[in-house]
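Running this now, will post back.
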Amino acid sequence: MRLKQKAEEEQSHGRLEEALRMFITAEEMFSKCHGAETEQSLCLYYTCISYFNQRDLPFMHKPMRRLQQLARRYPENIFIQYDYLSVLAAYESAVYEEKPSDKLRDQFMVHFKQAVYWQSKMTAAEWKKRQINPMFNLMNIAVLYDLSYNPPLIDSMQVYIDRALAVNHLPWGDKWDHVEGLISAYDLQAWILLYKQRYKEAEAKEQEVLAMIKSLEADRSNNVLTEKGEAYDFFVELYKAMDQPKKAMEYLELRNDCNRKRFDIEKNNAIRDIEARYEAKKKDEQIAELHRRNLALTVGIVLLLLFVTVSTAMVIYRRKLREQRLYDEALAAELENSNRHSSLRLLADQLGISDVDVDEAHSFMEQAQKPLTVVDQKYILCFLNGEDVKAISRRFHVEPASVYTVRYRIKKKFPEKAKLPF
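Update: finished.
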């Protein structure tokens, strides 16, 4: 149990490889303990999800088989059944993205629904203990009815939106989890109304979403910028459909202003993170250096450390100047074209991403049928860099559900058969 808890801590801090190793070891230990099958299943679940988030699908096969064996051995264990069906449905949906077929789509939809069935057998206290977000799981099915079918199955979407709203009053998460669930549900309802060309109702529903977002600004001003930007984006699409270009442009400007604020906040946060990591690393190096040196070299060490400190300060100062210059250039480019706020290379540098081929990323983004915002581009760069949803949520200081919402909006901007990196 201590090893599993340590693995969960490592996972929450983004040390995925170490967490994965611990989960695998803990699962093997649990398999030798009588009555520990539920904990064994949870370790296998985390192992599979870790591979899934990194899109290492072949590595999912072994832990999935072990989960399947547990599910067959304990058919009445609601937690094991939920773990297995959730992983199986996620795996099938990932395979479907690479090789779409109606048969595979129907399979993962059935398995997602079965997972939700076993979820419904749990109490709210059990959801909270296992960190299950029931609204997210139900909304996920509603979103799949939107993304995986052409045209979207609107009636089925509404059924699962209603079910998600029905569990909102139960005590399974904190205040933000519940409000964010309501925002997602109402937002998808607004899109349904837009699909049905019931523009006035869609407008009223999204205004309700925007009001909920703004009500949280006092306590979570930085964390609602993404949701607010997505709401503005909805109004841009709505007023385009209503042939009201003036109002569409108003919300386009609001969206752009929101994105600029978010870009500035993330840039400053990134700089602070870099400085903190650098200072922590330098402190460790200094301690190690002092241990290696003897007393006769103390004066030399102090002088060396002073030189390194001054050099470091100059490097950080120059880096700040360089990043500010790049940001100013990006802002100037955005004024020329409201749909492009900065170059991908600027975004990659600002995010600290160096392994992504910017030219290939640019070619990929050109496939979009609708303009990509700066936020869209940054999330795509993170996905291309191999980062999972939790890593991205920590990077941008938002909840994981916000990342799923942004990813959902990005998918809608690409052709149906486009090969997406997420």
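Residues 1-121 form a domain with the Serine Threonine Protein Phosphatase 5, Tetratricopeptide repeat fold (CATH 1.25.40). More later if anyone needs it.
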